[in-house]
């Protein structure tokens, strides 16, 4: 299974998500089969412009938005939401 991750260079929320995803994949081996294609929205605006999102990081499967960051979320909330996303994908 493959999902797309849009990120922005220097984005602290993107770095946080990367760190949490690494933790989640260590804690849940079943998540290892989920491949993440990372798209830098600055390097590839022609791709990013085809998707509807405001905040990064933002995840899509096909054209369906799975997760979009919210700067007001705590790290615990981010981990919970990303874990929920991975649980659904791993089914």
TrEMBL record:
Stored CDD domains: TRX_family
Highest taxon of source: Bacteria
Gene3D superfamilies: Glutaredoxin
Matches recorded under InterPro entries: GLR_AS, Glutaredoxin-like, Thioredoxin-like_sf
Name this polypeptide is given: Glutaredoxin
């Amino acid at each position: 299974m493959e999902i797309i991750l849009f990120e922005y260079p220097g984005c602290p929320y993107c770095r946080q998500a990367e760190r949490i995803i690494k933790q989640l994949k260590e804690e849940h081996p079943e998540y290892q089969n989920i491949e993440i294609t990372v798209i830098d929205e600055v390097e590839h605006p022609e791709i990013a412009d085809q998707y509807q999102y405001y905040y990064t990081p933002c995840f899509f499967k096909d054209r369906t938005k799975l997760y979009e960051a919210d700067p007001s979320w705590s790290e615990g909330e981010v981990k919970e939401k990303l874990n929920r996303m991975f649980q659904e994908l791993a089914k």
